Structure formats: structure tokens, C-alpha cells
Amino acid sequence: MFITKTLATVENQSTHARIAAELAVFAAGVLLVTALARLVIRLPWTPVPITGQTFGVALMALLWGRNRAAAVIAGYIGLGALGAPVLAGGASGLAFGPTLGYIGGMLLAAPLVGWLADRGAARSFFTAFGAAVCGSVVIFTCGVFVLSHYLPHGNTAALLGAGLWPFLPGDFAKNIIAASIATRLNKSN
Q1: If pLDDT is split at 50, 70 and 90, which confidence band does 15 have?
Q2: What is the dihedral of CA 108, 118, 185, 134, to 10 degrees?
Q3: Can you tell me the distance from the alpha carbon of 114 to that of 144, in angstroms, rounded to the nearest whole number?
Q4: CA of 33: how far to CAs of 16, 38, 130, 151, in Å?
Q5: What are the pLDDT digits (tens) for 58-82?
Q6: What is d(CA 29, CA 63) in angstroms, rounded to the nearest whole number?
Q7: What is the phi/psi pair of residue 91, to 5°?
Q8: 2-188: what CATH class?
Q9: Average pLDDT over residues 83-96
Q10: Domain boundaries, the chain
């Protein structure tokens, strides 16, 4: 909430103040997604863990819009690629593996959800939830596509059981929470 109010008041500040505020928001966003990436539930039948990262993507995009959310997620992934232990469970480094599609999906989902928020989607719960769901569709599509290269080909049931179905209830809850927070904060500003 502090960051949202800070961004709203910084528009009338000097260039230096705006840059400082944007850098603070960027750092806070990267720290938020990093913290949420520490929330990991491993499932024994899949290499894909349940994490809090997608909640961070939805929440930031709904609150901060396309440009800020895209920059934060790109920075977060970039730090992970450079070896910082920011990815799920404190992992670092990017390689073509079973979870890379989900990470790439986050990079695409943040600007999409943010773009929808920039056009007013975060003003009501239902449109904010719909925008967050659009982001989830992108993340899961990219994730399942890459995961399909690591599971036996032609076994759609196994693929969806490893990369989609177990994640939907939690993703539904994360999107409800993100939409609720975003609409509440948008109404208070």
C-alpha cells in the first residue's frame, strides 16, 4: 500500500525523485517475488513445485501496470540467470529444464496483466480476477509446453497431471487474493 501511494504522489516530483521512487518500486517488487519464490511445496510426481511467484506476478501487474511489472519480472529472472539465489526455493541459474516454461510464462504474463490493469481491469474484482486468470493461462501454456519435452510424448493425462491440474486450486486462490488486494487498494487511492 505504501508503494502504491508513493507512486501516486511521485508524478509531481522532480526527475530525480521519480527515478528514486521507480528504483525503490523495482527493488521492492524483486524482493517480493523472491520472498514468494521461497514458498515452495514439492509434489512427488512432478518436477514442478507449487510456489508463490505467480501470486507476485498477478499482484504487481494489477497494482503497478505493464511497464513496472514487466521490468520487475525481467529483473527478477535476470538476477536468477546471473546466479542470484532468487528462483523457486532459492535456486539460481537458468537452464532448459522442466520449469523454464513457467518462468518464461511469467515474463509474458506480467506485461499482459499489467496492460489489462492499465486499461482499467483492476478497478473491479471481477475484471481484476479475469486479468489475473489471463496471466495464469499464459504461464500454464508456456509451462506445460516446455514440460512436455521432459515427459513421455503422447501421454496428455500424465502431462496435465504433472503440469496443470495440481496447480489450479492454488492458482485460483492466488488470483482471488491478488484481485481482492488490487481492487481494495485501487478504491482507497
Answers
A1: confident
A2: -40
A3: 23
A4: 26, 9, 21, 28
A5: 999 999 999 999 999 999 999 999 9
A6: 11
A7: -70, 160
A8: mainly alpha
A9: 90
A10: 2-188
Phi, psi of 76 (to 5 degrees): -60, -50
DSSP letters, the chain, are -HHHHHHHHHTTS-HHHHHHHHHHHHHHHHHHHHHHHT-EE--TT-SPPEESHHHHHHHHHHHHHHHHHHHHHHHHHHHHHTT-S-SGGG-----SSTTHHHHHHHHHHHHHHHHHHHTTGGGSHHHHHHHHHHHHHHHHHHHHHHHTTTS-TT-HHHHHHHHTGGGHHHHHHHHHHHHHHHHHHHHH-
- Entry pTM: 0.90
Within 10 angstroms of residue 185's Cβ, the number of other Cβ atoms is 17
Q: Letter for the amino acid at 20?
A: A
Q: What is the pLDDT of residues 128-156, one digit of tens each?
A: 999 999 999 999 999 999 999 999 888 99
Residue 129 in grid coordinates: 480476477
State how far Cα 171 lies from the chain centre. Answer: 11
